[in-house]
Amino acid sequence: MPKTRSVIAVLTSVALLAGSPALLADPSNGKGNPHANQAQHGNSGGKGKADAGSSGQSYSGGNRYHDPQIDIGGIRSILGDNRNYWSPASPLPPGIQKNLARGKPLPPGIAKKLDGRLLGRLPHYEGYDWMQAGTDLILVTVATGIIYEVLHDVLD
Questions:
Q1: What angle do CA 126, 34, 96 make, to 5 degrees?
Q2: Is 102 helix (H, G, I), strand (E, B) or coil?
Q3: Suppose 92 and one of 14, 46, 52, 97 were both cysteines; which one would form an S-S bond, judging by CB atoms 3.0 to 4.6 Å apart?
Q4: What span is annotated as the signal peptide, if there is one (predicted)?
Q5: How far apart are CA 7 and CA 18, in angstroms?
Q6: Nearest 5°: phi and psi at 130?
Q7: Which residues pair with 112 in a beta bridge?
Q8: Distance between CA atoms of 11 and 15, rounded to whole angstroms?
Q9: What is d(CA 50, CA 66) in angstroms, rounded to the nearest whole number?
């Protein structure tokens, strides 16, 4: 009986040691090739209309280790639970809505800041700010004003 326990302990240890490098081999958290997501979202080169509101997580190019990965479902849940911290707005006109594209600069005067209580509940990404533009929630690069992500119609 004691010999059986020793064998089981040794086999378990070997299995754990052999499996550890496999866990470290995938730094993209199981998302596979990040460039495959661009084709999935209809984006070429990380530019164009971003409709992440219905497609889950997205990738816009750049350094995948430092760019935020947006959890759309989690954000929708936070917004639903905190409806009193944001005010519904009317949708933007179609021409302006087309200008809200990932990878382009934020048009001046189109977005407004969110309530600080809501910002405290939304995920924080270093170097990015959440803003409201009509019924869309957008994530903007602080330094350049470039739109990183557009979550269409989540604030309606």
A1: 65
A2: strand
A3: 97
A4: 1-25
A5: 16
A6: -85, 140
A7: 132
A8: 6
A9: 19
Task: Look at residues 138, 150, 149, 154 and name the one whose alpha carbon lies nearest to residue 68.
Answer: 149
Give the Cα separation of 136 and 131 in Å (integer). Answer: 9
At residue 19, the pLDDT reads 64
Q: In what order do the strands lie in the sheet with 128-133?
A: 112-113, 128-133, 136-141, 147-151
CATH of the domain at 105: 3.10.450.160
The rounded mean pLDDT for the chain is: 74
Q: Hey, which bits of the chain come out as E strands?
A: 112-113, 128-133, 136-141, 147-151
What's the chain's Rg over C-alpha atoms? Answer: 21
Structural domain count, the chain: 1
> What is the distance between the alpha carbons of residues 71 and 111, in angstroms, rounded to a whole number?
21
Q: Please choose, from the candidates 129, 137, 73, 125, the residue with its C-alpha nearest in 3D space to the C-alpha of residue 100.
A: 137
91: part of which helix (H) or strand (E)? none
Q: 156 lies in a domain?
A: no
Q: How confident is the model over 15-67, as pLDDT tens digits? A: 776 765 655 554 444 444 444 333 333 333 333 333 444 333 344 444 555 77
Q: How far is 44 from 40, CA to CA, in rounded Å? A: 10
CB 34 within 8 A of CB 59: yes
